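Cross-check.
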Amino acid sequence: MVATHQAEKFGPWLARQLRRTGMSQAQLADRVGLTRAAVSAWINNRAEPREDTKRLIAAVLGTDTASLFNLAKDVATELPVQWYHRLGHADGGREYGNAAAFAFDADLSALAREATQNTLDERYDNDKPVSVRYTLHELTGEHLDAFLQALHWDDLEAHYEQAASAEQKVSRSLRAALDNLAETRSLTLLRVDDYNATGLTGPEYGDGRYAAVVRRQLDSFKHADGRAGGSYGLGKATLWAASRFGLVLINTTLSAPQEGRTERRVIGRLDLPWHEIAGTAYAGPAWLGEPDTEPDHKGVSRSWWADEQTVETLHLARLGTDPGTTFLIVGVHDASGSAETLQQMHDKLVDSLADGFWAAMVGGRTKGPLLEARVTTLRNGHVLIPETRVDPHNHHPALSRAFQSYLDHETVAELTSGDQVAQASVPLVVPPRKGKGRARGKGYEHQAVLLLTPANDEDDPLNRVVFMRGNRMTIVSHRPRELPLGASPFQAVLLAGYATESDGEDVDLAEEFLRASEPPEHNRWDRTEELTSLYERGALTRLKEFRTEIDTTVRRLVGRREADSNGGPTVLRELLKLDGPGSSGIRRAQGIPSIHNVSAHLEDSGAWHVRVDLKLPEVEDPWRLTPVAKFDVRSGGRPQVDWKILTPSDNCRIDDDNVVIEAGVRSATFVGVTDPASHPVQGRLARLIVDVQKARGGAL
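Predicted model, tokenized:
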């Protein structure tokens, strides 16, 4: 699908040219020798002038005849690009910053996550992936001076100085940014380009993508088909939050013409706190653009159709004519403090894109990826760190292998070799929505898809399930509970809603339900105001049941595995207990410690390596526990084996092979490694039992 150029109608074009040149309809009529009624008919699209009259109009307006016939550009005028600052509220209200910017952590991870999700939501041609490019660019010396001049920095300095003088959070941050710029004479830009996206279409002030991003808050203006990842309209705030100066420039190529144009629609937006200059109060927001000539918005800076030289000077030039948008974050920083150098920022962007969107970047034999991403770093126009293409198979090999196998229909029901991908269904019950006329009932059942595969050596962390829906953005990484002791390390993916690549009413309803359960950060499925407002009572319970089903399915899949990559049998069934007659499995009783979780693996030496998490009741005396390891061999009794190593991990200490936990501590973890010399049989031929017993003199 390619953006097509559709000429604007003659009437709106002529009306805009008259406003831009300050000419009235009567004056034009007089200069072309016709009546005002004739000009009015042109303006209102009731008639159109003859070709010879159009040539005369072009001469009067001072433009070339071709421009008037194809309506491809506005008449050249002396309208200056300038900053327009919104005046303070008439009722005296003040905002000391944009509250939406505090909905997220202002670091590069949040920026990459939100900006890329918005790009995926605006994918234009579904037969091609969306392309995103992140470019860090440090400016110094004459390169910095040229950029600041093109930005009309001199016109902003007084506003910045006043805005930075208040004793407010945003003001203090602005003061530090201004001082740093003056001291270092260095400025880092971050350009975020997307291609094969719709671009910021729509009118200057009316409903549309452009106004939702540039002029409004909490307006997401997402697709009506419900496939969008975002729904709050807050994600765009991360762009401004990532700027130390609250300043972002925009250049968009439109998929649908506006005013007969598609290329180089440019605007700048600045978010400052309330401030006052020479007795005039300013609300904070400001826009860089041409002064509007429409009566209702006269003098307000609006977007303009820039020339190629202007976008080059402002570092907004795009590659080719594919639709999409370029955001330039002026003075980018990572508020977390974990990425201060250019190399650290470059690496954090790469890692964040890989972690958040690895599945969107995976394609199969018949279905290509949804997304491709690259990161480059420049200094004064020269490449400092070469372009890095984000490869999901390098960053998350096991997860990428799992999803690609699903796309290629190569999954299996049970794992029998080291690189297979097991697939299972996980039911999600979508509760009924509230509202009159809605049928009450138990809701719809949606079959989510769980993919599980053995972990690669470089995978970290292990034994997790990555949840996703919609456009395959990672929602959360979840560690299942009560995994079988000795289960081989794995990675798993939970696909729900549209991420299953399925169609049907249950898919639509599941997508809608899960989207309603996500907070603005889109980092979990849990209670939200939208969830409790829209769905009948029990919606949160359905989510908890869903997580329980996920854990159960994982345990079933990893418990089925009977062969490892070396072809030998893998021991495994969890059997843990606390001391007590007739107890088996995990015993949890009120008033005594309980084993909350166990993870274990068999070392190359044959030793069992066990990590045990304990939960403890609140008591006045310390706990003194003795962990005992036993083999549940295939015949005979359960011989005890020795610990070669017993070490504390969290909230405990080891004293003469006892685990000592101070009074008042509610959880503790210890690690034990068995001594292979004490094993009556090879470790892989027996089940291991960890028996946590009362130590002599202990509180248990």
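Confidence is low (pLDDT under 50) at residues 1-5, 228-233, 560-590, 696-700. The two ends are 72 Å apart (CA to CA). Passed to J.P. for a second look.
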